[in-house]
Every structure is written in structure tokens, then in C-alpha cells.
Amino acid sequence: MTPPDGTLTVGVEHLAEGQVLATVAGELDYGNADRLTDRLGPETGPGRMLLDLGGLEFCDSIGLNAIVRLWKRMHEAGGELVVVRTSPLLTELMEITGLAELLGAR
């Protein structure tokens, strides 16, 4: 579900032991990227985080950086972060920057 007026929403669902689905929608940018890392930071660990970015309407370089920081935190904790869904625009941006391969973006 896309939030109104370009705000950012981050939902978390625990699927199985050690596996979390994080759903992100709206706009991820310089004004709210910290909200993403603040909300998902406690979920980082040795498990697996599935990151659904299909609801993102906009993402700037600061937003991409927040996603990379989450990936790094998961990796350092022995976990894995995988992007399971993106929008066509975000997929193109991730491919241009080389992040699609790193994050397993589909």
C-alpha cells in the first residue's frame, strides 16, 4: 500500500525463525532515510531480511545509501539482506549503480 503525500512507511513481518519481511512504500530520500534504518536496525542479525521495495515511488542516493547500510549491518551480523521486489524505476537505478547484484534485486 502506497502512503499518501509521499511519506515513507516501513512494515515488518516475522515469517519464520530468523526470517523477516520488511515492506517499504512511499518516498525514500534525504528527509526520511534514517527512519528506514531506525525501524529496521533492530531487525538486523544473523537471519535473513527480505526487503520488499515494490511500493517505493521515489528513492534518491541517500535512500540507496540507507539500503546499503542495512545490507552491511546484516552482513556484519552474519545475516543476509535480499531485495525481493522493486519498482521498474528502482530496478533500473539499482542496475546502473551496481546494487542489483549485491542485493539480489529481482
From TrEMBL:
SUPFAM superfamilies in the cross-refs: SpoIIaa-like
Record-annotated STAS domain positions: 17-106
PROSITE patterns hit by this protein: STAS (PS50801)
CDD domains per the UniProt record, alphabetical: STAS_anti-anti-sigma_factors
Superkingdom of this protein's organism: Bacteria
InterPro entries reported for this sequence: Anti-sigma_ant, STAS_dom, STAS_dom_sf
Family (UniProt): Belongs to the anti-sigma-factor antagonist family.
PANTHER family, alphabetized: ANTI-SIGMA FACTOR ANTAGONIST TM_1081-RELATED (PTHR33495:SF2), ANTI-SIGMA FACTOR ANTAGONIST TM_1081-RELATED-RELATED (PTHR33495)
NCBIfam families listed in its UniProt record: ant_ant_sig (TIGR00377)
Protein name: Anti-sigma factor antagonist
Gene source species: Actinomadura parmotrematis
